[in-house]
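Action item from last week, closing it out:
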Amino acid sequence: MLEKLSGLADPKAVVALVLLGMVVLIFGAASGGPAGQALAAILAVLLVVLALMLIFFYWIKRMNEDIGANRRELDPEFEEALEEYDDEE
């Protein structure tokens, strides 16, 4: 599930969710009654929280890419060190 969510996490989706939350909040405030305003506020807060979660998943995705790149750089060096150690024995 986390892989699917991290696949959806990109800056465009985060901006879209924040803007959608702002639009919902504005329309709720303009609609009138206190019940509509409260519902719109709750929905807007949920959308912003979802956007923050997507930022976190995007960060995790980028960290995994960086770790994978570093690992590919270090694997040949590690193999060489193991071969040198085996040759010494």
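Closing note: The two ends are 47 Å apart (CA to CA).
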